[in-house]
Recover the amino acids of this structure.
């Protein structure tokens, strides 16, 4: 679900096909019949943006039919935990949880805590984007969460205030019939999928979920994945071979760029960026971020070692290891905020390092307008992408909104080195680091980012060498010495990797993050990558052929942490340390050696057996009970109910997308309450649900990729052999919608939202079908988003019409589900384009609907029955 | 070649000599075909790489001859892709050798209508100047918050976007340098 | 109908003769379309390896197929067919349909087919129970995808008609156009019953003016490598190997997919007694060949060469007779 | 290659769901890459071959003038042919590769050798005629070219019949007769134009007989082919066929009625030459049309399979005895 794996990860899909051939059921739940659906054993069509309802229906099915894996649930999850009686559910509050603050449009999570847990405020800040509540993958690892088991538990799961019963009530209204009404599938489809999942889970079998941006790119995206996690925990499918939830990521090292983040809110290894607050010293940071148990119990060692890697010998215990040099964050500083900052004039200079927001970002039109406000822009790419040439060929120049001669932006286009022209490591979607050799020298001025950043830093430091300004000290004291190689003076990537791996005081390379110290005697650029260069061997470059090793391929590359291939794999054994079944065994406790053994690296204290009980005052891993596999949480339990770490609720709830033709059938509250929106004239929204003007946008649209192209097209629209395979922007519509709107197969259609109108060739296909939703027939429009104005094959960008509305946890935009109108024929040219768009209704202020003249919009009739 | 040998190597003669009267088999084989070799065999060197497109991490073999990439294909030894590649991975050679690739710095001055040439060193120097100036101009030592006036030590006037297609080492230097510069809005596609 | 082999033509089983000891086992492809995910890696990998140019940037609207078919500039081509019927039916029904198709194809009294694998369908392979809705949500939709390629026919008409010997049969039994010989006469183009070969007309590209088609990566096979398309194929839909082994594997596979209820399954080109003597590259299809743009009963035109030469001789004789008769009358 | 024009025609409102019997209406076999030069060459080749035969006949019957003129007419065909052939090659410089091998399985290769033999003979004969020397060599050359001329005039029919183009391959019986008819009428017509009527009786009869054979074979062919004969009577090919028949018929009639007068012979000969040329163009165009429409390929093959004369290329799984246990088809 939320993934079109066959199309977007075809090579990984070989394993799915192989599983299918070995008898696995492959179920694809998707708004469209894709190449994945065609090769699955079952396809269920649902309306885009309703996955939580569908998944919630599965949760409901499991609980109503008693299909949960009881022992796993009781021992390994927080299902038995009793929640404070202050907690109120969406059941009680019409789609809200307790703790809602209307003024700040955010939740306080005090009422979501375990009964008996310390209600004292968690450190850090509660506004959106504040660090302590970032869902970073290890979200909620900070203080305030209890060590060991929750204070009050009911192992019978009968207590009405226990998580299990709260869950049951929470999802009680997600019946197959209700789900079908929301999703547009049949109740039997839901039952089929739920039954298949249950039948293939338990001691002897496991089932897994695969998702991609079809789940994350929603205003309630984090909760999509949470719902799947709840299902997998109820069915006992986490930490076990063949189980899990697989996130298929879209870029070669997008995982690496999250681990060693080029993200505003975290430092390497998911350490939160320090927040702007009164007490801002290192000790306060460490106290607020250290969990009483589990892997987050030694944050001090992680951050101090990082600061030592950043500032080297300059970082000492006396100067707080230069902690003060770190800039502080004070809310959301994500890319979309930067774009709005450009519009407002507060962001003046910008670097684009292999990214093309003029095509690839949500509401790409806004990004082009924003780029035109910059003082200067540096674009580093292989080819002349649209973001580099917006000043002369942006569509807004054609409409007259921009004039080249009026755009003040100074643009530096810097040619980049390709993946074969530089050495370095990528981290793939399964956390596997793989080293790449440099095969050839880059030509001309083409250089790697390593070169660019190193030399940019060098030049700036040289220019400021004599500065006495205190604000330059962090820069001048930075450890910025790397060996240079070759005629271009390319920094040695392996030297950087060694810095990431970390060293002992004597300079020897570390082999595990457990060796990290908080006293400044170790350095480590990213604690989760510690060990990738153990013993002086670049383990990311290991390439033992798969036929010479086991199925796990553990000697190919290096997976973080500690080359573990399955996280939480302690859960592959029962509480007593024995495999749940012979068929599904992975790790087990070996009494003889008093260690965990098996086919993987144990993700647990290796010598803590099932009988281990933490002594008083134990920290970190030593504080985890021998029966609790989930060592990222201080209680060692997986959180079905999230008392903290998620800003939009402890349990997932179905909300309609920001833009949807429908009201929320389950609750009065239509969309996710704390979702992020940005009201301003340049960033309008379509009216939704029952709002006036919503019927101008009667169709559901979704954007997606095709096998033949890559994201915003910079690496495919400029490549002849890929360009010819999908040479033009098209939209996919059903025969019924084509008949309704007089769209001619092979002809043109114009897709209109309050932001813009784009044209696309019409592909009429039964692979996308009208759905019966809440008693109405709804049509869906499919839009691949790869095209722009440059390259071999060109076309309008689907992102021009999608809204800019974000998930409140991770600030990811909702491009997978929105509303639109569609009309036959090509879009108007020049200023007439804006006239068409402005003839449609729009919202530019919260709660406000501007009704525009309707005569240009023949399609504003509701398609309802 | 001796004239006689030349004569004997004529296809029309070989038709008889090779018992290939119809001229459908070896007799029709040209000298070029007989000497054919795959360019993977004649390459100067083979390098290990990883596909630059999606995050599956397919291992690639990069064949180089005379300093040019002549072929990129899957590495059979990889337990991930077992030598296989998707169409994008299969097009990697064309990606890195595309005639549309840019190899020169280009500069567009404010309000300019055309690209201009710029030396790489000059460009680096100018970018460094821009960073220094904008950083000075937009620097924040402290801001007002609900906790009162607090230290932030940063600039919001500069941002960066990108990294998901870059190496870990590159991301490390990006984050390290920008953090030291006080640049907060460091972002990449992982968000998008 | 004269469809006996030409007496003077060395039958394909004799092709290795001209290579003597250098002859190698015959190589081929088995393209199993039940495993194809339509990714087109084969198309691109082929083009990259063989320096085949891009063939224009025209969006067709024919599902996801924008390359149209095999040509001088497309040596692997993935067909996309959207059908409003389910991928699977109950295995019993699949067998029934298969029986109908066979009867329809060969008549009720047809002799039993050769090469039928012995034994019943595989049982207990863990595949979902037959009644479970599959592939389509029970709503009757399937999307056939199939990677087409030169068939490397046993009786290859292109090879037979080539006037220069540019087309020849290699030591692996494959059929290859030699770029250092071909003069671009275009005869092979019209001889191929599948419309595989074309003459490259893209100015400035390599091999322009010459016949172009799949070589089964002759240069790679010479070095013991598998062809680029088979190597790239993520799901092993394209299988490369020794032809006799592939045929055995394919007949087992056919039994398996029919037992699983894949509707319309049949092998195409696996029968050495068909009109081209069996394909070197054959397929497992899920519908009639013509649905994929393939001829249902391809015949090597040169199988009729005796007849063609016979009628030609008769006509030449007639011409001679006409001459003779014309001189029977007076000089005026 | 892509075929946008097939949109709508085959899918109508069903979008991507193609017509069941073809792949988006795409052709199965390829259209010839040959251009007009090739059918024109067919014409000149026929003219050359039949003229050589006519010359031999005249030589044997002692009609030196006719023999000489027929030789010259043949030379026109011989001189015209190579440029036409070479022009149509993708690699013209490699014309000589045709002589790299002797391939009996390739009518084009065989034809090239026949062209060499016939052309060589005619050239020697014509040279001797012009210079008035070596009469025995001339006679030998005339004999050779006359004998090789018979298959040379015919092989182009075999060449097109030996293809996968339905309208050509299935017409393999009649096409040689259409071609020799055309060749005879062209050769006879040409000789009749340049030879005084007093010496041109045989040429006229040859021309008339050729035209009759051409017409008769054409009608038989179209009738026998049924559906596959359609391309000969439809579209551009149909117009060319009709024009060629009218022209050839008229030429034969004029030749019969007024051929004894020089002007009549010239008019008739011209009509016959035109008719023969048009017939080649018609055949060529019909082949292209039949290649373009997958129906012609599929229908014929399906009928073959349905009739049990061929099994087709598909094989199915399953055991026959299992069928007995299956429920009846609904």
């Amino acid at each position: 679900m939320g993934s079109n794996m066959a199309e977007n990860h075809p090579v990984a899909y070989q394993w799915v096909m192989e599983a299918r051939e070995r008898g696995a059921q492959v179920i694809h739940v998707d708004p469209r019949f894709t190449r994945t659906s065609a090769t699955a054993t079952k396809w269920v069509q649902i309306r885009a943006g309703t996955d939580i309802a569908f998944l919630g229906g599965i949760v409901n099915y499991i609980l109503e039919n008693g299909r949960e894996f009881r022992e796993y649930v009781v021992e390994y999850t927080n299902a038995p935990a009793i929640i404070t009686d202050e907690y109120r559910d969406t059941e009680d509050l019409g789609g809200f949880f307790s703790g809602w603050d209307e003024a700040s449009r955010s939740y306080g999570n005090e009422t979501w805590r375990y009964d008996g847990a310390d209600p004292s405020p968690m450190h850090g800040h509660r506004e959106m984007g504040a660090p302590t509540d970032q869902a970073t993958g290890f979200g909620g690892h900070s203080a305030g969460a209890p060590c060991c088991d929750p204070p009050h538990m009911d192992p019978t799961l009968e207590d009405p205030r226990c998580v299990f019963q709260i869950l049951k009530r929470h999802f009680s209204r997600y019946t197959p019939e209700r789900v079908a009404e929301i999703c547009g599938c049949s109740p039997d489809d839901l039952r089929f999928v739920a039954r298949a999942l249950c039948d293939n889970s338990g001691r002897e079998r496991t089932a897994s979920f695969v998702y991609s941006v079809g789940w994350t790119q929603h205003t309630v995206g984090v909760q999509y994945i949470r719902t799947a996690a709840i299902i997998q925990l109820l069915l006992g499918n986490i930490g076990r071979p063949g189980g899990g939830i697989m996130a298929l990521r879209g870029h070669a090292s997008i995982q690496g760029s999250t681990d060693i983040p080029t993200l505003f809110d975290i430092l390497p290894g998911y350490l939160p960026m320090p927040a702007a607050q009164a007490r801002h010293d290192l000790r306060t940071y460490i106290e607020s971020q250290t969990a009483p148990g589990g892997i987050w119990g030694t944050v001090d060692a992680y951050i101090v070692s990082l600061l030592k890697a950043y500032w080297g010998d300059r970082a000492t215990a006396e100067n707080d290891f230069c902690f003060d040099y770190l800039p502080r964050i004070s809310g959301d500083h994500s890319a979309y905020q930067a774009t709005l900052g450009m519009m407002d004039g507060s962001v003046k200079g910008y670097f684009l390092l292999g990214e093309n927001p003029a095509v690839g970002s949500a509401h790409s039109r806004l990004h082009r307008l924003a780029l035109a406000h910059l003082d200067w822009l540096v674009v580093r790419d292989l080819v002349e992408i649209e973001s580099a040439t917006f000043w002369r060929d942006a569509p807004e120049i054609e409409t007259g909104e921009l004039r080249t001669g009026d755009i003040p932006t100074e643009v530096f286009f810097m040619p980049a080195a390709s993946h074969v022209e530089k050495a370095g490591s990528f981290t793939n979607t399964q956390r596997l680091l793989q080293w790449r050799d440099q095969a050839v020298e880059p030509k001309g001025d083409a250089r790697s980012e390593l070169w660019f950043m190193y030399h940019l830093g060098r030049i700036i430091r040289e220019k400021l060498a004599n500065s006495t300004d205190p604000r330059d000290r962090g820069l001048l004291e930075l450890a910025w010495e790397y060996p240079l190689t070759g005629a271009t003076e390319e920094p040695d990537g392996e030297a950087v990797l060694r810095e990431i791996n970390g060293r002992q005081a004597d300079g020897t390379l570390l082999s595990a993050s457990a060796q990290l110290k908080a006293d400044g005697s170790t350095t480590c650029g990213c604690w989760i990558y510690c060990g990738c260069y153990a013993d002086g061997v670049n383990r990311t470059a290991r390439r033992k052929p798969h036929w010479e090793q086991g199925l796990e391929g553990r000697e190919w590359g290096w997976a973080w942490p500690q080359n573990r291939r399955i996280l939480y794999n302690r859960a592959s054994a029962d509480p007593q340390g024995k495999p749940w079944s012979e068929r599904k065994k992975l790790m087990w406790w070996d009494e003889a050696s008093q260690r965990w053994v098996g086919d993987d690296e144990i993700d647990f204290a290796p010598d803590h057996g099932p009988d281990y009980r933490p002594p008083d005052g134990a920290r970190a891993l030593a504080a985890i009970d021998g029966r609790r596999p989930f060592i990222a949480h201080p209680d060692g339990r997986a959180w079905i109910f999230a008392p903290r770490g998620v800003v939009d609720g402890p349990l997932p709830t179905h909300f309609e997308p920001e833009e949807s033709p429908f009201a929320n059938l389950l609750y009065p509250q239509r969309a996710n309450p704390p979702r992020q929106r940005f009201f301003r004239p340049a960033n309008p929204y379509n009216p939704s649900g029952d709002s006036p003007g919503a019927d101008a946008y009667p169709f559901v649209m979704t954007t997606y990729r095709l096998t033949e192209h890559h994201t915003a097209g910079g690496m495919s629209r400029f490549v002849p052999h890929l360009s010819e395979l999908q040479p033009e922007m098209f939209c996919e519509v059903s025969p019924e919608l084509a008949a309704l709107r007089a769209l001619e197969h092979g002809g043109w259609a114009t897709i209109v939202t309050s932001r813009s109108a784009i044209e696309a060739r019409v592909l009429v296909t039964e692979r996308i079908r009208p759905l019966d939703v809440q008693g109405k027939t709804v049509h869906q429009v499919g839009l691949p988003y790869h095209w722009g104005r440059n390259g071999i094959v060109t076309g309008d960008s689907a992102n021009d019409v999608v809204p800019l509305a974000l998930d409140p946890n991770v600030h990811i935009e909702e491009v997978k589900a929105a509303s639109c109108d569609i009309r036959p024929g090509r879009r108007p040219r020049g200023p007439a384009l804006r006239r068409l768009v402005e003839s449609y209704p729009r919202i530019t202020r919260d709660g406000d609907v501007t009704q525009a003249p309707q005569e240009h919009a023949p399609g504003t009739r509701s398609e309802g029955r | 070649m001796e004239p006689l040998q030349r004569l004997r190597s004529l296809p029309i003669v070989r038709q008889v000599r090779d018992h290939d009267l119809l001229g459908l088999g070896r007799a029709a084989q040209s000298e070029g075909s007989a000497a054919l070799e795959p360019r993977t065999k004649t390459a100067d060197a083979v390098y290990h790489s990883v596909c630059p497109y999606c995050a599956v991490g397919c291992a690639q073999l990069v064949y180089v001859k005379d300093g040019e990439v002549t072929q990129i294909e899957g590495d059979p030894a990889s337990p991930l892709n077992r030598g296989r590649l998707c169409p994008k991975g299969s097009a990697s050679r064309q990606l890195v050798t595309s005639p549309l690739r840019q190899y020169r710095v280009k500069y567009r001055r404010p309000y300019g209508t055309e690209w201009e040439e710029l030396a790489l060193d000059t460009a680096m120097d100018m970018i460094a100047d821009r960073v220094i100036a904008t950083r000075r101009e937009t620097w924040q030592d402290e801001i007002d918050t609900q906790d009162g006036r607090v230290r932030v030590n940063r600039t919001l006037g500069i941002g960066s976007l990108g990294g998901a297609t870059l190496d870990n080492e590159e991301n490390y230097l990006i984050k390290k340098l920008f953090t030291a510069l006080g640049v907060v809005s460091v972002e990449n596609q992982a968000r998008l | 109908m004269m469809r006996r082999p030409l007496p003077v033509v060395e039958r394909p089983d004799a092709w290795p003769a001209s290579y003597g000891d250098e002859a190698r086992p015959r190589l081929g492809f088995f393209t199993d379309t039940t495993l194809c995910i339509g990714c087109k890696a084969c198309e691109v990998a082929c083009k990259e390896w063989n320096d085949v140019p891009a063939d224009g940037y025209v969006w067709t609207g024919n599902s996801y197929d924008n390359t149209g078919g095999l040509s001088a500039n497309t040596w692997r081509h993935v067909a996309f067919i959207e059908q409003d019927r389910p991928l699977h039916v109950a295995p019993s029904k699949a067998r029934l349909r298969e029986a109908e198709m066979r009867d329809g194809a060969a008549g009720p009294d047809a002799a039993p087919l050769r090469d039928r694998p012995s034994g019943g369908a595989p049982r207990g392979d863990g595949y979902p129970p037959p009644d479970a809705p599959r592939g389509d949500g029970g709503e009757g939709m399937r999307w056939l995808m199939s990677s087409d390629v030169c068939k490397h026919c046993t009786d290859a008409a292109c090879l037979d008609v080539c006037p220069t010997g540019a087309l020849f049969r290699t030591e692996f039994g494959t059929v290859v156009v030699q770029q250092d010989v071909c003069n671009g006469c275009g005869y092979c183009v019209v001889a191929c019953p599948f419309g595989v070969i074309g003459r490259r007309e893209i100015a400035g590209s390599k091999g322009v003016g010459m016949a172009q088609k799949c070589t089964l990566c002759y240069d790679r096979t010479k070095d013991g490598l598998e062809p680029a398309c088979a190597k790239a194929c993520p799901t092993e839909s394209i299988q490369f190997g020794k032809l006799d082994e592939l045929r055995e594997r394919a007949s087992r596979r056919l039994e398996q997919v029919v037992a699983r209820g894949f509707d319309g399954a049949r092998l195409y080109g696996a029968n050495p007694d068909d009109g081209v003597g069996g394909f070197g590259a054959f397929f497992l299809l899920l519908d009639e060949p013509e649905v994929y743009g393939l001829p249902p009963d391809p015949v090597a035109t040169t199988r009729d060469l005796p007849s063609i030469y016979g009628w030609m001789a008769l006509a030449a004789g007639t011409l001679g007779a006409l001459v003779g008769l014309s001189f029977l009358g007076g000089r005026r | 290659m892509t075929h946008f024009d097939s949109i709508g025609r085959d899918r109508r409102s069903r979008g991507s769901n193609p017509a069941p019997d073809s792949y988006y209406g795409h052709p199965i076999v390829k259209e010839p890459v040959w251009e007009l030069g090739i059918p024109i060459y067919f014409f000149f080749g026929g003219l050359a071959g039949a003229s050589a035969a006519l010359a031999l006949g005249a030589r044997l019957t002692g009609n030196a003038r006719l023999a000489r003129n027929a030789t010259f007419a043949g030379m026109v065909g011989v001189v015209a042919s190579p440029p036409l052939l070479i022009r149509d090659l993708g690699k013209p410089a490699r014309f000589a590769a045709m002589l790299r091998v002797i391939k009996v399985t390739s009518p084009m290769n065989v034809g090239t050798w026949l062209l060499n033999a016939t052309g060589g003979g005619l050239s020697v004969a014509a040279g001797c005629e012009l210079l008035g020397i070596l009469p025995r060599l001339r006679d030998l050359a005339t004999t050779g070219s006359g004998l090789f001329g018979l298959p040379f005039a015919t092989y182009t029919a075999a060449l097109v019949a030996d293809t996968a183009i339905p309208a050509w391959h299935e017409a393999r019986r009649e096409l040689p007769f259409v071609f020799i008819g055309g060749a005879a009428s062209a050769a006879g017509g040409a000789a009749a134009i340049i030879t005084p009527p007093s010496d041109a009786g045989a040429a006229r009869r040859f021309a008339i007989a050729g035209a009759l054979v051409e017409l008769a074979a054409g009608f038989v062919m179209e009738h026998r082919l049924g559906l596959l004969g359609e391309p000969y009577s439809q579209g551009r090919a149909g117009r060319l066929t009709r024009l060629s028949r009218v022209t050839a018929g008229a030429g034969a009639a004029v030749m019969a009625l007024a051929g004894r007068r020089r002007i009549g012979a010239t008019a008739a000969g011209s009509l016959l030459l035109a008719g023969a040329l048009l017939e080649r163009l018609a055949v060529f165009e019909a082949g292209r049309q039949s290649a373009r429409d997958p129906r012609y390929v599929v229908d014929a093959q399906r009928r073959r399979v349905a009739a049990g004369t061929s099994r087709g290329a598909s094989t199915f799984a399953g055991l026959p005895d299992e069928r007995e246990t299956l429920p009846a088809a609904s």
